[in-house]
Amino acid sequence: MPPPASTSILHRSSPPPPCRMGDIFKPAPKPDSELRKYRLLSPSAGVRVSPICLGAMSLGDQWTKFMAGKLDVKEAEEYLDYFYKAGGNFIDTANNYQDEQSEMIVGEWMEKRGIRDDIVLATKFTTFFPNRHAQQWTEKRIGVNYVGNAKKSLKHSLEASLKKLRTDYIDLLYVHWWDHSTSIPELMQNLAEVVRSGNVLYLGVSDTPAWVVAQANEYARAHALPQFVVFQGLYNYAVRDMERDIIPMCRNNGMSIAPWGIMGQGQFKPAEDLAKKGLRGGATEQSAANKKICDALEEVAKEIGGNTKLAHVGMAWARQMYSATFPILGGTSIEHLQSNINALSLTLTDEQMAKLDKAAPFDHGFPTGLFGVDPRLLPEQSPQSPLLLQVCISTWHGAGHVKYPKAV
Ligand SMILES: NC(=O)c1ccc[n+]([C@@H]2O[C@H](COP(=O)([O-])OP(=O)(O)OC[C@H]3O[C@@H](n4cnc5c(N)ncnc54)[C@H](OP(=O)(O)O)[C@@H]3O)[C@@H](O)[C@H]2O)c1
């Protein structure tokens, strides 16, 4: 709920204080933290969010082993308080994170602080969410419709999320992953209904092939339905597949990206730190490929100096690859969170970006590998494709491409 209007203004015993024009239309104070430099969520969603989103998968103590860390309820609230006090208003959770504990923690925290409407709250449906430990789900009950993208799964998951989050609306509801079963018309019609009902404000999609999202958005626009405004997926300096089709699809569909795993899921650290903290998912040692990635990040971090960490360089790299990027940052330590917020001011030079690209070049595969990348991404917008180069020669100008805006 928005803060209640003060009744004292109606029944005032003393005259109101003098009021000048400048008092009413006072400009907002300059942001005191990088996190308060709010940005539009996406080219097709005007809600304003902090430049990083707090990943709530680490809030709770049910997935301790898998996450290589935990935050109990009290610690999670401190973590959330730190983020909020620094200006953070964007939180990402899901129906099943920490066996539902994550949504419960966020819901109780928002209610206790009375700040639900300050927060731009994202959650997800698709994954099976009811208590997976309860024997009844394997022995007595039928769980088949509590998973997937069909209408029944959406209804149950959304109703449960609203209860756990102690709210009557979700700002951004994601399809968590593509189930290869529900048709695009069914999905988009059902999602439009939850938006029309007021239970959901915006739609997002995660871990789904580009062709599905492009087709779903086309269907939505053709039927005057809401489209997906954000794509959430695994994207970092070590895993760049989203550059192949997903980012170009977002650029052409008015969508932003919310990358997860941007810190390499905790692996962007010097080897000695990794040995101390341990790796997620039970891995015992750093892979050779990851070591190469970390070495390149470390070289740039050292060049920048100060307290720059590998993780900071990784975050800056991803933010500079596409202008509408909202990293979802995971973690359990306030110290890391604080340093990540400060690192929002870090901008890598063109030389540093080129150095990182050279150290871990990305293979676009076919057709881009053969016909060249979008010239709007290249220096001088000069096409790589011999076929497009023919156009330049015949017109004696460039091929007419205008550079994409640089990420800020
Ligand atoms: N859509 C999906 O399928 C999907 C899948 C996975 C995750 N997600 C979302 O994305 C969020 C983040 O995912 P993630 O946790 O897997 O990836 P991540 O953000 O890449 O990794 C988080 C890890 O990075 C470490 N870290 C953070 N800041 C650091 C720093 N400054 N220096 C060194 N290490 C640092 C953290 O360590 P400490 O714990 O020590 O701070 C934590 O272990 C999740 O919370 C969730 O909301 C979505």
Written account of the structure:
- The protein has 408 residues and is α/β, with parallel strands linked by helices.
- It has two domains: 31-358, Alpha-Beta Barrel (TIM Barrel); 368-408, no CATH class.
- It has 16 helices and ten strands.
- The protein has an eight-stranded parallel sheet. A two-stranded antiparallel ribbon has the order 1-2.
- The longest helix has 17 residues, at 288-304.
- It is globular, with a radius of gyration of 23 Å.
- The relative contact order is 0.10.
- The model has no long low-confidence stretch (mean pLDDT 91).
- NADP nicotinamide-adenine-dinucleotide phosphate (NAP) is lined by residues 55-58, 69, 92, 206-207, 232, 260-266, 269, 309, 311, 328-333, 336, 339-340.
Provide a brief overview of the structure.
The protein is an alpha/beta fold and 408 residues long. 38% of the residues lie in helices and 12% in strands.
